[in-house]
Amino acid sequence: MNIAASIASTPSAAKAVTEPDQKHLLQIYLRDHEAAAAGGLELFRRCSRSNEGTPYAEELQRLTSEIRLKRDALRDICRQFDVAFSKVGQALAFAGVTLGRLKTNGRALTYSPLSRVIELEAMSAGVMTQLRLWQLLLHIAAVDQRLDKEALNRHVTDANEQLEALVRLHQRAVHDAFL
Q1: Rounded to the nearest 10 degrees, what angle do helices 113-141 and 19-50 cross at?
Q2: What is the pLDDT of residues 45-61, one digit of tens each?
Q3: In the predicted structure, residue 3 carries a pLDDT above the cut 80
Q4: Which of 44, 67, 84, 133 is the most exposed place for a label (fewest CB within 10 A)?
């Protein structure tokens, strides 16, 4: 059974996708996720740098390291599926990270407690998106042997743990900024 047939057999599928279409759509999906992962990693790095010497530093450094490894794992999967990385997509993701900080900071040139709150929310959204990616790939792994089910299950578990850590950091940041 091919990926399209597997997905089409689910109750919510409207119609089957041809195998060439599914390959193309998966490549677009992976390329977009890789570009978003590059931007997300930049956000984690920037937030970690901005919080050096604070009670947030150690956990943010750990998360940044994990996110880099997940980005690398995604790039490996992209290579398996002959996905060309999008320099434009990566540039747009980096620009979004930079512009997002300027827009939400509340200060022109310095880091504010609001910056931390907003960045942690954006980082949580990114990890949630990454979780959905790993879950989708795990579904595809049922019909595509190029994907390692054990590794994908670890990625799902790791993403859930990262979300829990980000929730704890966010709660602390909210308290520090507003209470």
Answers
A1: 150
A2: 999 999 999 999 999 99
A3: no
A4: 84
| Cβ burial 28-52 (10 Å sphere, 16+ → b, else e) | eebbebbbbbbbbbbbbbbbbebbe
Give the model's pLDDT for residue 92.
Answer: 63
Show the 3-state SS of 128-163: HHHHHHHHHHHHHHCCCCCCCHHHHHHHHHHHHHHH
The model's pTM is: 0.83
* Measured CA distances, 104 to 98, 112, 116, 119 (Å): 10, 10, 10, 9
Count CB-CB contacts under 10 A for residue 130: 24
C-alpha to C-alpha distance for 131 and 136, rounded to whole angstroms: 9
Rounded to the nearest 10 degrees, how much is the dihedral formed by the CA atoms of 127, 129, 134, 137? -160
